[in-house]
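Example 3.2
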Amino acid sequence: MMSIFAKHWWLLVLRGAVAFLFAVVAFSLSSSHYVALATSLAAYLLADGVLTTYSGWRLRCEEYSGGVLMAEGLVGIVLAFVIWLGPVNDNRLVYLFASWCILTGLLEVWLAYYIRKAIEDEWQLAIAGVISAGLGVVMLFRANSGAVSLAWWAGFYAVFFGLLMVGVGLRLRRWLAH
């Protein structure tokens, strides 16, 4: 199983890079750019969802079905289209992003637990999941904070998530080289 994860280390690094790109966009937006925030958030959810779904698909094997990653990715893809196609105000956007953070965070913690025997330092994936779920809970309690707060929350999330994904991906790459 470990060799399957390691062969696709670059997908985690790419997910981290996409998160960094989104963070730059989120930090650069002001309250007058609500539509740009919604659009960039939807684009991030779509890009991360596609990469995660693809990861799950590529990682399916006898020991690991890839279903957790595919489920996580599909949630992001669906929410991206909900944001793009539906009328979304500040509060609804916060609730959608918070729900995504909680769900994907829990799935990442479960995945880290699942692969703990096969990969060293799976704690990075678990921490990414805890940060994601924790941020989602905080956002649910502060949903009326508005678009600027959402942009900052999402930006900080993306930076931490990106760092952790790149870290896990590079560890897998080093493992593969040995």
